[in-house]
Structures are given as structure tokens and as C-alpha cells.
Amino acid sequence: MSVINILSPHVADLIAAGEVVERPASVVKELLENSFDAGARHVVCEIRDGGATYIRVTDDGCGMAPEDAGIAFVRHATSKLSDESGLEHISTMGFRGEALAAISSVSHMELLTRQKGAEEGTRVLLDAGEIEEMIPCGCPEGTTMICRNLFFNTPARLKFLKSDRSEASACITAALRCALGRPDVSVRFVRDGKEEFFSPGDGKLDSCLYALLGREEAASMLSCSSASDGLSLSGFVSSPAEGRGNRAHQFFFVNGRFIKSTLLQSAVEQAYRNTLLVGRYPSCVLYLTLSFSSVDVNVHPAKTEIRFGSEKRIFDFVYQAVRLALASEDRLNTNSDNLPLTGKGDRVAVDEVFSRKESGGIALNGTQTHAPSIPSEQINNSVIHNSEQHSESTTPSAAEPSQLRITNYELTPTPYPLHPTPSSSPTPYSLTPNSSSTSPLASPSTPYSLTPTPSSTPVPCPLSPDPSSPVPDHRILGEAFKTYIIVESRGELILIDKHAAHERMIFDRLKAAGRSVSSQMLLMPAIVRLSLEDMELLERNAALLSDLGFELEPYGEKEIIVRGVPAEMPASDVSSSIEEICEKLRSSKTPDPSSVHDEILHTVACKAAIKAGWDTQRPELEKIVSAVLSGAVLYCPHGRPVSSVLTRKDLDKLFKRIV
Questions:
Q1: Does the pLDDT of residue 343 top 70, yes or no?
Q2: 237, 251 contact by CB (below 8 A)
Q3: Does the domain formed by 205-379 have CATH 3.30.230.10?
Q4: How much is the pTM?
């Protein structure tokens, strides 16, 4: 007896519907994309009860002829693909011919459509994919799709739908993504009779962001634009000070199609390394344009996953573009220089400024999208260094682009110490075992001899401002609570967190040194007691710690002797620093050596920086202020801003001089 059955077309359609239509949000996405492909300029989407009972999408697109309306719901019927050669350059949102067939097979569908210039339209009623009625009718030009009682014939799927509130939220998110992907199309979304959002459809990305993401988020975004060798990136990224607790506001579009890509997500988040608070994520709306043959969109029925032909090239391009956008941020001048003034000297509201921005753009599916350009003088402040300048021992991770390294500073060979250093120092020595040892940390019985360490080149300082970005005129008024430096400059009052700023200065200097951080030998070696787990962690990462300037030896089963530490680190913080490093090594969830390297540098920089509450001499304050005002220091390594600005207007409002 045969055990293999051939499924009926109806059952096959139900199974296929499960791949395309997961929930009402899937229907919203597919119908909106069909409207975009039809050339619509205005689209209205309306849902009721979370979309489970009613979804209607109306557009002013090209519409359908009666003969096309009759076969539009047949599986693999599509107007966007004719033969296999078309798979190599798919430029439309849909192409499989599965969406309408899948949706109609699990709902009651109604279609009203009329071609432009036609005298009458067509009305089609379907029940579970079967045409019940098809008659001429009067209707506006374009197409209206109505989906009722979704999953009425698949109770198992209906049972797993969430609450109306959750399903409606998913529908709004799906429609929002579609609207962000097409700034040239006006999209209106209505939920239970109430308008949720409306995009103007004027083709300008900044106004689209303003309408869909809100005034505050749009105003805090930084323009991101780059083009190179057939690749083009346009859009906005968030300021590091505006990190979010999740990735919900990361939107990626490739050739106009919204996608979910861990590659692009990783490229963006790597660009924010050392500027964003731990546990916070950047927001972005980025449009990547490349040749259609360089990307495969035929990967998943939902079409939200794609495959790139050259992932490394795409990663590096996006990474470098976002780094340039972050380098262009000037937090000190945002309030005073970038916003136009009225006749009374008051700044124009942010929403007015957003509508006045002069913007350039790239072509997106034949439509010009606009995004504010990065000022050339800000781009020139970024220095691009070839990776050939790195030592050969440095091995870039897979997630870190190896071609270019971008910083906000000009590297100069002049040291930048904040504490007095002797004019000359004795030749540094390292403890070298007389016999070879298989363990990075030799056993206590291993004899050691003192051998001179070859002198290393001076560590370049990344904090000397570029000549094109001079330090503005300023006056240090003093300190508040021995923590915040008070500076007057350009008619503004600037508060600077001296610990956070100094910590960033030290971190950048150590980071610029690469894998050759200078070490200082301790006059009195420190003995640190650790757990067995911590001892194992230190032994496993002995090479990394040695590169960072730590000279360690085992001393018994649970103790180590620290003979050398990074030159920046005070000797008094040795024990606490080792314990903190062990904790970071234990909690690290990434195999990326460079990430672990940076985490340890965070600890070294934090321990070496001047602390809140310390008395600080005026020359040291001046160096910190110069680094901040020149734009060399914006955030501490943990992502906290190092400065805050109070304008004259802010103070006048505080004292009720103005209302």
C-alpha cells in the first residue's frame, strides 16, 4: 500500500500560506509592497481588531484590467517576472506570485480595481482562494484590497495570534518600515478609525523621518552619506548620546527593500564601539544601493532576508560610512552654529530647521531621496590611516574592517601627559625565563634573568587638534565640586566632566599605540590573590595582557606577582585593576580579541584618569578643555558625553528674563 500522498491544491495552498502569512502584519506588508510596485503615489492602510478581522489597502496605482484581476490570485501568477533571467536583476518588491494566493486561501478577500483611463472597474470576491463573484463596478482609479476574517479556515493558526493590541502593533511596525523605504510615497495608516501615522511622500528623507519617527529622534540624527565603486549609502544614524535599549529603530533598506541583516547590523554597531554606553544600541535609517546582480533576494518567502555577493566589501563600506558620520558630529556647536537665528536672536524651533535643511540625495528605485550632506570641513577633520601602519602582529577580527582605521584626530608624535614625567628614564627591563616554558605564565620555580627590553618608538598622541579645527577662544571660570570644569566660550557656558574627558584622552592614546602599550616596572611588585578561575583566565590571556603592558608571574596556586603595569596606570590601583580585568574576561560574550582588548583598555584608562574630587592644576584643566573644545573628545570610552552646554537663552529662561 502506498504511503506517499499527493496533497490537494487547497491543502498545498494552506501550507504555502503558512510560509508567507504568519500574522496580520504579513498581509499588511505584502499588500503595501504590491501598491508600491503598482506605481502608487498615495496609499491608505486601515485595520480593525489588530488586523484579524479587517485589513484594507487602497492605492492610486496603475490598477488591473478585468482579465488580470481574474488570475491575480492564482499561485505563481505575477506581472514582475517572466523568465529565469529576471531573477538576476529583481527591482520590484514582489516577484514570487505567492502573496495574493496565500492570503486569499486563508481569508475572505475582496478586490476593487480600475485601470487609469478605463470607463469601469472590476470587483472580485473570493472565499478561501476560490472566486465567488467577478463583476464590473464603479470605483476610483487604482486598487483596493480588503482582507476579512484572516485564518478563518485554519483555527490552529488563529489560536496562536496574540492580543489585538500586539497584532496591531506588529501591523503598524510593518507599515512603518514600508513607508520609510519609500519617502516618495505618501502612506497613511488608520487603526480602528484613528490615524496612527502619515508620511508626506515628498521624496525627502528628513521629512519622512520627522513624520514617522517623531520630532525628537529625527532632530538627534546625524546625516550619513557615502559612495564608492558602485556602492551608495544614504540615510541617518543616531548620535551616540541617544542610544536605545534595543534595536527596534534600526532600519536597513537595500535597493529600497527593507531587510533584516546581521551583517549590516554588526557593521553599524562596530562603528559605535567605544562611544556608546554598554547595553545601548544605535538607531539608524540607512539605504544601501548596489547593482541588482550583486544581491540575491530570492532567499526566503517573506523576502526580508537577502544574500550579498561580497559580504566583506559591504561590511567595510557601511562601517566606514557610519564612522565618518559619527566623526562629523559637533555636540558643542549643534545649538549655536547649526541652527539659524531669528531677528530677535532666538533659535528657530527644531521642526522648522528640519524643514529648511538643504539636502542632497541618491536615486532610490528611480526616485531622488534627500538627506542632509556632511559639511566638507567636518569630513576633513577625520584622518584615515592605512592598516599597513599597524604592526604585523596585529590581527584584525572578522568584524573589524582591515583596510581603513578612522579617528577624529591627527596623530602627532608629541606625548600628551597630564602628569609630570621625568626627562629621562632607566632602560626598562623584562623578566625572561632562562629556559623555555610551555605556559605563558611560568611556574614559580622557573629562574629569571633581567634582560633589557628594546626601546620602543614614542606613543603617538591622537589628541592634538587638527589645524583645520583650532581651539575656539575660551575662558576657564573654575570647577564645580572639583568634578566639572566651567568654561565660557562663544557666548555659552560649557560644563566638562574632567574625569570622563581625561579618561577618553588616555584611552585614545592607548588605542593608538595598538599592541605595543608602554609598560612601567613596579619598584615594589604587588601580590594579588585570585580564585582558580581567575588564575586560569589570566593564563589563557597572558599574551594579550603582555601586549597591554602587564608583567605577571604566578606565585603559588592562587596568587600572582605583578611586576609591571601600563605606564598610565597608578601603582596603587594594581590589585583592583587586575580583579576588574578578570571580571571583564569572565563576562565577555564575544570571541573578538579586539573587543576584549578595548574592554581592558577601558579599565586602564579609567584607573589612570584624574578622579572627581581631586585638586587639578590649571595647566591640566587647560589641556582637557582644549581637547574637548577642539572636538577631539566627545564621549568617554563607555559612551557618556563629556560636556554639556548652557546657552544665554537657557540661563535667561531659568531666571525668568524671557518666557
A1: no
A2: no
A3: yes
A4: 0.65
